[in-house]
Structures are given as structure tokens and as C-alpha cells.
Amino acid sequence: MRRKYICGNWKMNKTSSEARKFAKDLNNSEFKNVDVLIAPSFVTLESLRKELKSEIEIAAQNISQYENGAYTGEVSAEMLKDIDVNSVIIGHSERREIFKESNEIVNEKVKRAISEGLKVILCLGESEEIREKGKEVEFVRDELLASLKDIKTLENITIAYEPIWAIGTGKTCNSIDAEEMCKEIRNTLIEEYTEEADSTRILYGGSVKPENAVEILSKENIDGVLVGGASLKSEDFIEIIKAGENL
Ligand code: PGA
């Protein structure tokens, strides 16, 4: 049985002072039987780690593929670990599309994070154009295999399927299509990594909100959600956590 994983990606939102209020709300709410993660901006990581109760995981939204050195503006795995941040989101479609991160770069980042002992949430997902052509399964499979090239074990890896056309648009992928793609992802992982893939968590992301969380989270191959917009309001995010807890 895979425990549900409710992850909030704040993107470039919330100052550290705004995050403090959110931390208070989250600390005051009780939940068990569910894992919870928040990914704030780099500058808020350290203070949020100190303010949030320890059972809530904190993740960075990105990481450098390089170990250290002359890479202006970049943040290394070692810097994250030093402030007690042990997880990172890699390959979000905004990184891929706006900041031109190719599968090769994403793969370098995954390898760097895993070799430094970080847990990774690897994001994948097709554009509307690819879905209209009916090529989404092939596309996501290629993205998955290229991003995981040379990765020998899935132990510290979670996959997030996030169709680009459903991110921040209010258009949720219907839960049947989302389940179908998450199942395809699991089958591909089983081909590559055998039964180890049975315990890998696969998340859905894209316009998840309190109103649709139960339906999405009840699907067999959807082990959690990666939430953008609805993770910014503590009441909404707590409602989504409760949806995961009660399944
Ligand atoms: P959204 O974003 O929930 O605002 O659609 C999801 C994501 O980008 O992770």
C-alpha cells in the first residue's frame, strides 16, 4: 500500500513573512496516514524548515546539475542539505518550457540530486498540441526514460504526471485519463526496474483543488497530488490533505 503524498508547489509566490502564517495554520492541523510536502522559493526554505513541524517535508523547486563552483545564480545539493532540505522538484514544465531545460539537463539534475542523497519529485507531462495529436503516451514515456537515464534505483524517486495544458488553467485532466497515464508510467517503470516500481509513488498535478481532490486521489495508480495554485491558501491545502488522509 502506497501512502498518499500531498505536495504543494508555491512557485514564485509567498515571501518568508507570508509563509510564516501558513506554517502556523499547517502546524495547528492534525493529520496522519498521509505524507505532506511544501516547496517554497529558495529564500524561504531555511526559515520555513525551522517553523514547520518536522513531519512536514520541505523541498526546493529546482537544483543545479553542478556540484559547486562558478555558476552564478545557482543552488547546489550540498547547500540544500546544509539547511536540512532533503528533497527537490526537478523538471517542472515551467523549468522545461520557460527556462529551456531539456531532458538531458533534467537527467543531469536527477543524477546530481540522487548521488547527493536527495529525494526527487520528477515532473513529466505533454502539451495540448501533443495530446491533440494522440501522441501523449509516447511523449511521456520518452520523457520518463530520458530523465531517468542511468538511474539504477527508484528508491528516492517520485514521479509527477502534470499535463501542461492542465497547469494553472483550471482545466483538470479528467481522473480517468490521469489514471490511465499514471498506469502507463507505472508499467514503463516496471519494465525498466521490475517490482521495485510497485512502491514508487506517482502523483497527478494540474488544477487540483479541494473540489476534485477526492476523485483524483481515489484512483489506483495516483498516489498523491502536486498542487500549485490551491496550495497557496492554507485552508484549501489542508482540505486537500484531508482528502488524501481519508482514502
Ligand atoms: P496548478 O499547478 O495546481 O496551479 O495547476 C500545478 C503545478 O504546476 O505543479
UniProtKB/TrEMBL annotation:
EC number from the UniProt entry: 5.3.1.1
Coiled-coil annotated residue ranges, if any: 42-69
The protein's name: Triosephosphate isomerase
InterPro entries in UniProt: TrioseP_Isoase_bac/euk, Triosephosphate_isomerase, Triosephosphate_isomerase_AS
Residues that hold substrate according to the record: 9-11, 168, 207, 228-229
Keyword vocabulary terms for this entry: Coiled coil, Cytoplasm, Gluconeogenesis, Glycolysis, Isomerase
PROSITE patterns membership: TIM_1, TIM_2
Keyword flag DNA-binding: no
Gene encoding the protein: tpiA
Pathway: Carbohydrate degradation; glycolysis; D-glyceraldehyde 3-phosphate from glycerone phosphate: step 1/1; Carbohydrate biosynthesis; gluconeogenesis
Assembly and interaction partners: Homodimer.
Active site: 92, 162
